[in-house]
Amino acid sequence: MRQFLWVITLLWALPGHAEPQLISSYVWTVDNPRFGGFSGLEMSGDGSSFIAVSDRGAFVDGTITREAGMITAITLGGFYPLYRGNRAPLRRAENDSEGLAIAEDGTIYVSFEWTHGLRRFAGIDQPASDLMTTPAFDAMQANSSLEALAIGPDGALYTMPERSGLATRPFPVFRFKDGRWDQPFSIPRHGPYLIVGADVGPDGLLYILERDFAGIGFRNRVRRFALDGSGEELIIETGLRTHDNLEGISIWEDETGLVMTMISDDNFKTFQQTEIVEYRLTD
Known about the structure:
Structural class: mainly beta
Number of domains: 1
Helix content: under 10%
Strand order of the largest sheet: 1-17-16-15-14
CATH class: Mainly Beta
Radius of gyration: 18 Å
Number of helices: 1
Low-confidence stretches: 1-16
CATH architecture: 6 Propeller
């Protein structure tokens, strides 16, 4: 009965439903011990290249080859450790890098979920800024804080924690704009899903990637919102083990419309995989 009531609540709360079409599910492998743990993703405007961030303090970049719209190959550019101005790597407690957003001028922003805050990088091979934080983050759970990061058309940054603190409590959305932090809205929490990724698409809407671990595998969900938190719409909700642990999301546009690309965090486990998944959004 409890599960039935939750489904009814979800259907009532999410009135819209786009019907995305799966284009590709590509398993990416590289024989390098640093490869894996990808938790943030940003695609180029035409989808031909990308930057990703690992949750062990490193950027990677690469290019994608497609045939008839399907991914057929991925070429790794390189690994770029996150480091300070003195070339010293970030300490372990500081390098749990999770969310990724890139401004129009190429400035890169990364969110961290152990030491709560954001850092700014002039490029993937450039040093980190000081931590951009606020007292509002102090009460966040260790290893469960700023998992998701997105940047709006005006350059405002939106970040949110993986956990809200209670199963009935909405996820707070924090905004960094004009040098100040505020909390303009929250994301409603439905069911067991946790927030793991975010992006603002070419349509100006906020896409939220969520994940639920169900013991034998993962379920994934994407919702989208206006940048004031209104207009909640369910985009996709996958079945158990349809995909791996999807954590990074990027929305881009080709000649036929919007494409949603996601990447999985394999947790550096041999029984998981780095999967790059693409869906075409049809409305």
